[in-house]
Amino acid sequence: MYGTDPSAPALAAAEAFAAAGYHSVLELGAGQGRDTLYLARQGLQVTALDIAPGTVETICAKARAAGLTNMVSVVRHDMREPLPLPDDSTDASYSHMLFCMALTTFELERLAGELRRVLRPGGLVVYTVRTTADAHYGTGTPRGDDMYEHGGFIVHFFDRPLIDRLALGFELIDVADFTEGELPRRLARVTMRVPQR
After folding, report:
1. What pLDDT score was predicted for residue 1?
2. Residues 6+ apart with CB under 8 A from 128
3. What does the pLDDT read at residue 3?
4. CA dist., res. 126 & res. 139, Å (int)
5. Into which CATH architecture does domain 8-193 fall?
6. Residue 182 has what pLDDT?
7. Which helix (H) or strand (E) holds 172?
8. Which of 28, 91, 126, 163 falls 20 to 30 Å from 120 in CA-CA distance?
C-alpha cells in the first residue's frame, strides 16, 4: 500500500491514459507522491492534491530530486471544497483510496460533480475504493453511511450501488476487483468517462 514503487492501480491508470493519448491528470489524495512521480515519468502533467500537512513540500522535494518539477504541481486541498481547476481543463483524474476516506455520500457526489466539471469531454476518471467485501467492513466503530473507524482512521466502504450512484453523468466503463496489502484489503478499481458533449 505504501512505499516508493507505484501502486498497481497507477500502472493500470497510466496505461489507460496513454492509450487515450492524454497529457494531463489530476491526482486526488496524492499522499507521499509515489503514484504522482510515476504518472509524471510516463509523460503526464500531474496536478496533485492532498490535505495532509507537509504533503506539498514532500512531493515537491521528491519531484525536484527526480528532475520532474516541470511535470508536477502540488496543491494542499480539502476535497470537500470545489476543485481548484477551471472547467474542462484536464484530461483525466486518478485517485487511490481517496474516495473511501471519511467523505459522506453527499460529499462524494459533489466531488464526482466537480470531476465532471474540470475534466474535458471524453476524459477518464480512475479511482479505487475499499469495498463491503473487505474484512474490516462492519467492524470497528460505526460512523454511519457505511463508514467504520479503526485506530482513529475512518473508511467509507463501497458497495456496487454507491459506485453506480457516483457514475451518474459518466459512462461507467469498468469495475475491477483486486486485493492489496497483508489483510488483504479488498478494493475495486473504477473507470468512468465524461461523455462527449
Report:
1. 45
2. 9, 95, 96, 97, 99, 100, 187, 188, 189, 190
3. 62
4. 27
5. 3-Layer(aba) Sandwich (3.40)
6. 86
7. strand 171-180
8. 163
Q: Pick left, alpha or beta for residue 105 (phi over 0 → left; psi -120 to 50 → alpha; otherwise beta).
A: alpha
Separation CA 147–CA 132 (nearest Å)? 10
**Separation CA 87–CA 76 (nearest Å):** 19
Cell numbers found for residue 73: 504541481
Contact 174, 194 (CB under 8 A): no
**Where does residue 51 rank: exposed (0-12), middle (13-18), buried (19+ CB within 10 A)?**
middle
Encode pLDDT of 6-52 as tens digits.
999 999 999 999 999 999 999 999 999 999 999 999 999 999 999 99
Picking from 38, 99, 97, the residue whose alpha carbon sits closest to that of residue 72 is: 38
* Domain locations in the chain as residue ranges: 8-193
Residue 10's pLDDT is what?
Answer: 97
Low-confidence ranges of the chain (pLDDT < 50): 1
Nearest to 164 by CA among 108, 97, 117: 108
Q: Which residues of 74-91 are buried (b: 16+ CB within 10 A; e: fewer)?
A: beebebeeebebeeeebb
pTM of the model: 0.96
